Amino acid sequence: MPTWPEVLxxxxxxxxxxxxxxxxxxxxxxxxxxxxxxIAGFAVALRAKGETVDEVQGLVDALYERAVPLSIPGRxxxxxxxxxxxxxxxxxxxxxxxxxxxxxxxxxxxxNRSASSKAGTADVLERLGVRLDLPPADVARVAxxxxxxxxxxxxxxxxxxxxxxxxxxxxxxxxxxxxxxxANPAKPAAxxxxxxxxxxxxxxxxVFARRGVDAWVFRGDDGLDELTTTTTSRIWEARxxxxxxxxxxxxxxxxxxxxxxxxxxxxxxHNADVVRRVLAGETGPVRDAVLLNAGAALAVHxxxxxxxxxxxxxxxxxxxxxIDEGAAAATLKRWVTASS
Length: 340
What we know:
Blueprint: H1 4-12, H2 19-30, H3 36-49, H4 53-66, E1 76-81, H5 92-102, E2 106-111, H6 121-128, H7 136-146, E3 148-152, H8 153-156, H9 164-170, H10 176-182, E4 190-194, H11 200-211, E5 214-220, E6 233-239, E7 242-248, H12 260-263, H13 268-279, H14 285-302, H15 308-324, H16 327-339
């Protein structure tokens, strides 16, 4: 059996672990058998070394072994960012998820409270009136009634509470930030994932490809864990078990160039107000970013053939209609009602 000295010594020396070793380490963490120092050392050393596909697969396998299962019929979609980009932007993926649901995709969003930003998905959704402390049966019911639901990571991966102290005191993004999108308990067939960590998006896409998931994993060249409007982005598309890299310039889609300042958010109350205004039709840089990311989510959900820019453009047309025709705002209203 592996030991903490063996695992940590290998990581500090820059050696890759195998799937069994990382699964063992995560199993120790989830069982409450690891100390906060061991957890912090493991998380930081693995992130500093740079994860491999086998290492992340081991972590995800251990998480799924202990997760509360969730069954939601039909093709489902997750839209989420890893966080950790230190941009303190508004909740673009949250708005994009609501817009995608308004356009007809069944969205099962997996997330948590913020670990390194001012307002995470859970914090903002609560301000909007969405109830999050629901048992699994009600999470599935809300998906059927509202077209969108939220899997609170604390409820479905309760054993992760053992890592909470170490993560909270570190207050930086680590390998744990990669795991949320990869361990959605509903196992969505389509995923649009923003990843802030340079080098990690192709790794995440490879994990999705191994599982046969249709996924776009993207990173703005400004470091944003979204498709950015301030510059170009790169997209790693997992499809049919393979990963293909694309480069995207939003200007080619007619999206105006944005600025980091225009996308910056505030606390949960401020960001919730931004959500309401965008869904009500307010135009500007935030709407542009939401349409771009919701368009990507709808494109990966549709799984159509053709050049990626064409598929993304089609998704953006649907996202625009979702907002302008009131479907996105109505979806949020249904979500609040169903979760209550």
